[in-house]
From TrEMBL:
Residues 571-595 are annotated as: Disordered. A motif (Q motif) lies at residues 101-129. This is RNA helicase. Residues 333-493 form the Helicase C-terminal domain. CDD domains: SF2_C_DEAD. Its EC number is 3.6.4.13. The lineage of its organism: Eukaryota, Fungi, Fungi incertae sedis, Mucoromycota, Mortierellomycotina. GO terms for molecular function: ATP binding; hydrolase activity; nucleic acid binding; RNA helicase activity. Residues 101-129 form the DEAD-box RNA helicase Q domain. InterPro entries: DEAD/DEAH_box_helicase_dom, Helicase_ATP-bd, Helicase_C-like, P-loop_NTPase, RNA-helicase_DEAD-box_CS, RNA_helicase_DEAD_Q_motif. It holds the Pfam family Helicase_C.
């Protein structure tokens, strides 16, 4: 039995790989990124000295490696060029508003431009093309874009650039070694969860590298004493979850008097989690600027009416609305597969699926904390390198779990919805909905953990008779994204294709893929072409999910044939481009899965 205790998690982190998890997929050599067990909020930032200038500030090789190393960065994938064809709707603002086609087109601060190069950003994504220049020009915005579309860089680059330009003409505010009783941030970024806060902090550390800007993150569940210490050292960019920020306000640790920029990220999720009263308390705080000097932006994956009400209440009357891609849709770079089975078949089906696919970072979503722990035990006892993440984990355990997943020591993450929004982790190849959710927005956010930055990905959903509440919406989404609609969802097709311009894909009688009404062959279908592109990239040495060493072994394979799953058509698993070989044995994998 795997004991989910803090001591166990931290001890295993410090000890490195555990022998019994090396069977199926193997593990890469583990380097503990957190040897002292420090909180994520204490991760190092660039320490600016009083005598530094933009030209003379020295490099920090160790920090640079941590922030910009290839292992920690999500690179643009083979589908990144598709972003050029994604439509964007912009309402409001000047008619001659600017679209940024290159980061160098804006007068961004040289330090920010240098860090953009360090992060290997080559071309702006659609949300960056539209939102970045508008924020840089001083407009309030309400922006909606699909997951993994570059929203973080869209607002961090203009805000940090403008702050640096202003601070370079002013005395240094946060001197090293100085202590203050109250932090006075210039930019405030509010997010719904601790994991998103940590992720945002890492991005801010990267964009603020070699600058005088000092980012700080505070979130619940972690040691308040250490976060208070970080605030006392000074804070230019404050990243916070709503509850911990209210706590800091009540303790007199934070003043909003100097805030120039306020960002609500994942605004729909903030409201879904019941934080609206906290947001209103923060935004109407007595020391929050009420004049035109405060610039505010809301970023969201969806546009429910509650988000629009929030925008009307806190954005300026002339705020600009940006919509990139289909609202409520998901990226077409994700190949979605829905399999019907019985509840008792899920466990065996999952194991067969994991055995039949190349080793890769995989997120498995379940419906409850109890289910997460149970499935974690099952997979762990079958020698899968897995770890679970849910709300009952304390913050140190959560950070340890994410570190193990990111570094590849535990490339299978079993999670509840706590990890289903916004987590931007390199090379997540596969998302599995072990327990299908009831809301289509939640489904979209779950599968959005893969196919980041134009990389391809696979989403597998286990569907049972108890999931009919989402069937119609799921079918509509499959249609919209030109995915295969399995036979057992065909009865919902009429509802899903009532909107204008539907171009849907459904299963042929032989279980293959075809475009409805077009008479296309498997090779001609949208899904088949996507599968071929995916396979060429991943299995022929691509950098998503599998290393070239493993990729060569699977150059002609699929994700395998599921044993035990019941589908109406009885079709094989995965893409039509190739059929899977026999299921690999655990012993056979150990020698090839050293990634």
């Amino acid at each position: 039995m795997k004991e989910p205790t803090t001591a166990t998690v931290i001890e295993e982190q410090q000890q490195g790989p555990v022998p019994q998890t090396a069977g199926l997929w193997g593990v890469k050599e583990y380097v503990n990124p957190n040897p002292q067990g420090v909180w994520a909020s204490e991760r190092p930032i660039y320490e600016w000295k009083e005598d530094y200038t933009d030209e003379t500030a020295p490099n920090n090789a160790e920090l640079e490696h941590e922030l910009f190393d290839e292992e920690n960065r999500i690179n643009a994938g083979i589908y990144f060029d598709k972003y050029k064809t994604i439509s964007a709707s912009v309402k409001g603002g000047p008619e001659n508003r600017r679209v940024m086609n290159d980061f160098k087109e804006l007068a961004l601060h040289p330090t920010i431009l240098e860090n953009i190069v360090r992060m290997k950003y080559k071309e702006p994504t659609p949300i960056q093309k539209h939102a970045t220049p508008l924020l840089f020009a001083g407009y309030d915005i309400l922006a909606c874009a699909q997951t993994g579309s570059g929203k973080t860089a869209a607002f961090l680059t203009p805000i940090l650039s403008k702050l640096l330009s202003k601070l370079s003409k002013a005395p240094l505010q946060n001197l090293p070694g100085a202590r203050r009783t109250k932090a006075t941030p210039l930019a405030l970024i509010i997010l719904p969860t601790r994991e998103l806060g940590i992720q945002m902090f890492d991005s801010a550390r990267s964009f603020a590298y070699k600058s005088r800007l000092r980012p700080v993150v505070i979130y619940g569940g972690a040691d308040m004493k250490s976060q208070k210490e970080q605030l006392s050292k000074g804070c230019d960019i404050l990243i916070a979850t709503p509850g911990r920020l209210i706590d800091a306000i009540e303790r007199g640790l934070v003043s909003f008097a100097k805030v120039k920029y306020a960002i609500l990220d994942e605004a729909d999720r903030i409201l879904d989690m019941g934080f609206e009263p906290s947001i209103r308390q923060i935004m109407t705080a007595s020391d929050m600027p009420k004049d035109e000097s405060l610039q505010t932006a809301l970023f969201s994956a969806t546009f429910p009416s509650s988000v629009q009400v929030l925008a009307r209440d806190f954005l300026k009357d002339d705020y600009i609305r940006i919509r990139v891609g289909r609202i409520g849709g998901t990226t077409s770079d994700i190949m979605q597969k829905v399999v019907k089975l019985e509840e008792y078949q899920k466990e065996e089906t999952l194991i067969n699926l994991l055995l039949s696919q190349p080793p890769s970072r995989t997120v498995i979503f379940v419906s409850s904390k109890l289910r997460a722990d149970k499935l974690d035990d099952v997979l762990y006892n079958k020698n899968f390198p897995c770890i679970s993440l849910h709300g009952d984990r304390n913050q140190r355990e959560r950070e340890a779990a994410l570190n193990a997943f990111k570094t590849g020591r535990s490339p299978i993450l079993i999670a509840t919805s706590v990890a289903s929004r916004g987590l931007d982790i390199k090379d997540v190849l596969h998302v599995i909905n072990y327990d299908l959710c009831d809301e289509i927005d939640e489904y979209v956010h779950r599968i959005g953990r893969t196919a980041r930055a134009g990389n391809p990905g696979l989403a597998t959903t286990f569907y049972t008779d108890s999931n009919t509440v989402i069937a119609s919406q799921l079918t509509k989404l499959l249609v919209e994204c030109q995915q295969v609609v399995p036979e057992f969802l065909q009865e919902f097709m009429d509802e899903a294709t009532t909107y204008e311009g539907a171009d849907f894909v459904k299963e042929d009688e032989d279980g293959g893929f075809g475009v409805s009404g077009g008479g296309a062959t498997n090779e001609d279908s949208v899904s088949a072409r996507r599968a071929a592109d995916y396979q060429a990239h991943v299995f022929d040495g691509g950098d998503v999910g599998t290393p070239a060493k493993v990729a060569t072994i699977f150059a002609s394979s699929d994700w395998g044939t599921l044993k035990g799953a019941v589908t109406s058509s009885g079709d094989d698993w995965g893409t039509p481009a190739a059929k899977a070989p026999a299921k690999a044995s655990q012993d056979g994998w150990a020698a090839t899965a050293n990634w």
